[in-house]
Design goal:
This protein is mostly beta strands. The chain has no helices and nine strands.
Length: 90
């Protein structure tokens, strides 16, 4: 999948990004106070593919190595103490 166009989707709550099959390449998260956490699953009810506890009141950029994380749909199942998540995918 090298050389594919990279797209982005901004999410502000749990649920599907609605992009279908994708590879998660990078995630940017803006957190608030408390104990920020974001969990991505392989579609709704699928296995956990990325689970992150983050520092409060900050902006985080997480690069995914190699070809990214392959999912049938990008789905956020846990979205705690965060303002937004921007997912870069191909």
């Amino acid at each position: 999948m090298a050389g594919s166009d990279v797209r982005s989707k901004r999410l502000t709550a749990t649920g599907s990004a609605g992009v279908g099959p994708a590879r998660i390449r990078q995630v940017q998260v803006k957190t608030t106070t408390g104990s920020p956490r974001v969990t991505f699953t392989d579609a709704n009810g699928g296995s956990v593919v990325l689970d992150m506890d983050l520092d409060a009141s900050d902006t985080h950029s997480v690069n995914i190595p190699d070809e990214g994380i392959r999912v049938s749909d990008i789905y956020i199942s846990v979205f705690t103490a965060c303002t937004s998540v921007t997912v870069f995918y191909s």
